[in-house]
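During the no-cost extension, the postdoctoral fellow (Dr. R.K.) reprocessed legacy sequence entries with the updated structure-token encoder. One reprocessed record is reproduced below for audit purposes.
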Amino acid sequence: KISSLPPPPKGTSPELRLSHLTVYGGAYYSYLFARCLSAGIWHGALASDPLSPAAGEAIRRHLLQPGGGTDPADLFLDLHHHLGFSPQAEEPALVKRAGNGWVPDPKLYLQEVLQASKLQGE
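Re-encoded structure tokens follow.
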């Protein structure tokens, strides 16, 4: 078992430890990160034609095929270019530079969340 946490002391109950709070947080936010990116891809290239062969091929070739051998930000920037997103000034709308890295733009995902909450309220 691989863990960044030390093993529990003998005679204690590991279920009572609070490690699930620290480990869970990273997994939860990576899920939100992925949801922001997928919302950007959906609204930017797939919403108008979800079964587009060209968009499917671009996703397969520029996102899935390289796998873990390419930096994720580079994958999305390359996909952004090949899906024909409308060009922004310096950076695409899918990801934004933050310090020394990249973060997803949450606007489209937040719009989806708001729309879903309105539908549930009706």
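Confidence is low (pLDDT under 50) at residues 87-92. Helices lie at 19-46, 53-64, 72-82, 107-121. The remaining legacy entries will be reprocessed before the final report is submitted.
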